[in-house]
């Protein structure tokens, strides 16, 4: 491809409304253009990256035995009424009417359509299992479309659906998709973690999110630097090997702490560390009061607490409620003599013999509180969020907290849709049963953005070779030197014969702006052909990712190039 005849309009300035680096760089590098909020056009370079991501996804889905189909974007409301989602889906679902006044929506996902498709056709266990997928444009009227391709309103998704006759089959389908996703993100060359996600009513580990690690991610996850362990903060188990405190605690003592409320204030006032104090938090769980204790330097994780209690509703108690339960103003709550039947302490508190906590009395704290002796504790539990330095449940290494971008999601659906939509089949014994479903999504356009979020520098994109729109760029610096121009063209042609996807920057631009654009567009391999190098018989080669420059001889160029390319590719592994 010759840049002089291509459409890749680069920009010097970041678009004003862009708030993340992928949005800025993809726009500036002439790869995408915004049509309106959350809706983008892919220009030729951007589309090449998108298609490459889609190709890898497609190949791995096919390899795992899933069958590609293509379902419509427009979906009739009646299907959504059958599952009850027409009422509950909310404003993300873009609804409209046709000329006959019938209701439709633009598909944000395709459970209804795919279930409708197969319920008419699958009658017997002999026709199962079946796993179908599509790569198709979704529409979700997101409240806050932002971050460019990361959270668009219109975006490209791979969505797949499995149908099985029994639990074993459904679990095997889930495992096969989980494994395929691992291969996909590995082949894409992205650093990622599969994390256990909240699977709501289904329970068990039947929902995993695939997260690309990048500082700009919306989610925080605990990741092990040594093994493949990763978990959402809501899910990450805190490994606690602390022994139960033993020995005799001193007598409980009241201390006056006038106006001293926060942990930091108490610690400073009493001249102790925050880890010698515990916080007492009051929650309302399904209408009942529950107290949770956690070390002063930690926080209760409400999702963990809710799951632990098996509650369907959990909220922090309002200040009036706290005052009613403690008889003291907020800030002085403690578990000793508290009017609450259920009190759980975070497991870490087991190691402390004497604690400082609120006294349920204005301007007062207690010292030397012993949890066994002084508190009617219901029990200990893992209630806090995992923190930097906690041990990995997989291998014991210290965990680090990383930000992640959700690029994929695998989910065991069970019979939610097959029951409500009557997708039934006859099993081996002639009994009619609902099919057991799973659904598997990948944000294909989000992958393109996530790759840039993870791989860029101050000059532009660093495309992983797997999805780089082109692998190499030949920067023609010949100027008026016709012989050098011919050499640049010759090298470009040679690379094509070597099956290297190559761009020739033959534009009539100054060297500085050609270098800038090459860096901005981020092709992994840069080759600079100019009179100066040629006079010494060399072409300059730059690894875009590391910036390392080398010289390739014009004589025997092909072999030298291939060896160099292999080292650059290896660097990406
Ligand atoms: P999120 O929590 O980010 O909104 P989701 O849970 O709604 O995601 P799913 O319904 O599981 O996402 O969709 C499957 C995949 O589609 C996601 O893992 C994500 O990669 C992608 N995706 C979801 N919403 C968007 C969006 N607005 N723009 C781009 N990609 C998206
Ligand atoms: Mg969403």
Which descriptors would you attach to this protein?
573 residues, alpha+beta, BirA Bifunctional Protein, domain 2, YbaK protein, Rossmann fold, nine-stranded mixed sheet, five-stranded mixed sheet, 16 helices, 31 strands, binds adenosine-5'-triphosphate, binds magnesium ion
Total number of domains: 3
* Beta-strand fraction estimate: 25-35%
Distance between the termini: 27 Å
The residue-averaged pLDDT reads: 95
Question: In brief, what are we looking at here?
Answer:
The protein is of the alpha+beta class. Helices cover 28% and strands 28% of the residues.
Protein architecture, described:
With 573 residues, the protein is of the alpha+beta class. Helix content is 28%, strand content 28%. Strands 3, 7, 8, 9, 10, 11, 12, 21 and 24 form a 9-stranded mixed beta sheet that branches. The protein has a 5-stranded mixed beta sheet with strand order 16-14-15-17-20. Strands 28-27-29-30-31 form a 5-stranded mixed beta sheet, with helices on both faces. A hairpin with a 5-residue loop joins strand 30 and strand 31. The chain is globular, with a radius of gyration of 30 Å.
